[in-house]
Amino acid sequence: MPTFRRRTRATTETVPSQRTAFALTVEDLQVLERVTRHARTQLLRHARERDLGVVDEASGHRLMLTLSERAGAARALGHAGIPMLVEEAGTVRAVVLNLESYGGETMALAEGYELLDRITLLSRLPRSVALVGGVFTLPDETPEVDALSTA
User: Fold this and answer.
1) CA distance 10 to 5
2) Are 130 and 10 contacting, i.e. CB atoms less than 8 angstroms apart?
């Protein structure tokens, strides 16, 4: 059961310890947006399934909506990293594999696999998340963003 801590302007809710995340950079988010946009286009073009909910899930479109919300919260809080839950790394993997199976462009696939490698490394450095205004956030410090940027 979550515990609550009060702050003067926003309520911070500590979530159970099983919810962990790592920090993406703005550049990571931009790459993911390009890959998911291309995946959605390819899925709509080739898939028999015309249910937009299924296409949105398989292309990563829903994940992008969630990450965009978290990016806004991170920016408003002055945090450098954008939280991605560890379990969401599997969604990125599925998006890239779906894109490959639907004949995605070579550049989009290359970017997707490179980002997937980075996300796989980042997911090995998870931290507990908190909810601020109903949005997952990470603590102020985002050491993995800096550590991987210099690697």
Assistant:
1) 10
2) no
